[in-house]
Amino acid sequence: MSANPLFERTVSTLLAGEVICEVSNDDLNNYLLLPENQQQVASFLGQLNRTLRRTGTGEAWVCAYEDLSTSEAKEAVRQQFSLVANHLEPLVHFLRLIMAVEGSQRPILPGSLVQESVILDRLSSVPSLEAKLRSLVETQFFRTKKTDSAGQIRTVMTNLEKAGYLKSHGTTGSVYRATGKWSWLYDVMTFIETHEGIQTSDPEDEPQMRLA
């Protein structure tokens, strides 16, 4: 591996299955914006049956399997898909809640600000949104025993931050920025929407599912 610390961190982050973007890892994202660095990283990953890929919107970098003919690669992709499938429904519910709070038809985009105070203010004035929040925290991904809206929202935000979808912004601990992992998720959602019977489909059919 190169002695360049940015190269080492970039490769380690990608192989750990994390998404690199301007929000989550600004320095690594800037490093990958240079073609010569992309080539160096891709060359190294190729020795491990991996490839460097950008999400559909070009806002994030991920590590994907290059050849899915090996049993190791197929099993890793199946596990990745199973994890996504388990989390997809609550994530969609969260997106719908935020869109309703903001009165917008636009989903969360990488770099978007998500503020607990704004959500709580809107919840207090629209009872139907509180019902959506209660339904959300009943899902396994966001489950909590907290009964107050503030506590429930904090749990949701904390879980999204742990999963890499949000990053704390500022010093209050209640303001977040959306990461490029949403861009990756939208790629997966598009794949699911356009492929019937995805549970039994061959992961080799779609590069979106070739995550490390």
UniProtKB/TrEMBL annotation:
Keyword tags: Plasmid
InterPro entries: MksE
Pfam families according to UniProt: MksE
Entry protein name: DUF4194 domain-containing protein
Organism: Marinobacter nauticus (strain ATCC 700491 / DSM 11845 / VT8) (Marinobacter aquaeolei)
